[in-house]
Amino acid sequence: MSSHLAVNEQNQLEENRNSNSPSQPSFLRIIAKIISYVFHPLFVPVYIVAFLVYIQPYLYAGFSAWDKQIVVLQAFVMYTFFPLVTVLLLKALKFIDSIFLKTQRERVIPYIACGIWYFWAWYVRHNLPETPRELVYFSLAIFIASSIGLLANIYMKVSMHAISMGIVATFLMLMGFSQDISFTVYISVSLLVAGLVCTSRFIVSDHTQREVYAGLLIGVVSQLIGYWFA
Description:
Blueprint: E1 2-7, E2 13-18, H1 26-38, H2 44-55, H3 65-92, H4 104-126, H5 133-152, H6 160-178, H7 184-204, H8 209-229
Antiparallel strand pairs: 1-2
Helix pairs in contact: 1-7, 2-3, 3-4, 4-5, 5-6, 5-8, 6-7, 6-8
């Protein structure tokens, strides 16, 4: 994958990327797109919250069914609904050309806006005494990752999918090291999913290896920092 700057018809600089890798079969690209959509960064935090609420056996053991639903709904509002509405509004107001945020320039405002939502999500959970510590440092990691991603965006179009996978895999590893129950299956699944998602981004996106691996590193580092501060 190579990229260069060119002047478009409106006399504005834009980034053009040329793929040096051979095209993949259509069925493989379809599978890669499905994986990319299912594990989109807007949805991944909700999956983890649902895991903590319904599958992980004891963090929310004392909560009623309604309270558990509220926790998951709050996660959906803060990590999916608000960021998605923000991007759609930016597209409607023509601040961005595509909701897929294909260039570094288009990602600046969404990074800043989503960083505000993510900070709010962490701050609220941090100040609620009934919130499990695990959810607090997971929320903090998401905010830190969005901040580092904004800075990294100056130099490269870092993969947001890879950032989310780095956070998830590291989060489950930290839980496995700190809990008495076995997390081997969950960690294995997270690593498998991370590999599938990153491979899918190589197939159907214009990300370079540097951008995908940088995203993974940002996710890992952000979760470690969040864990240490929390």
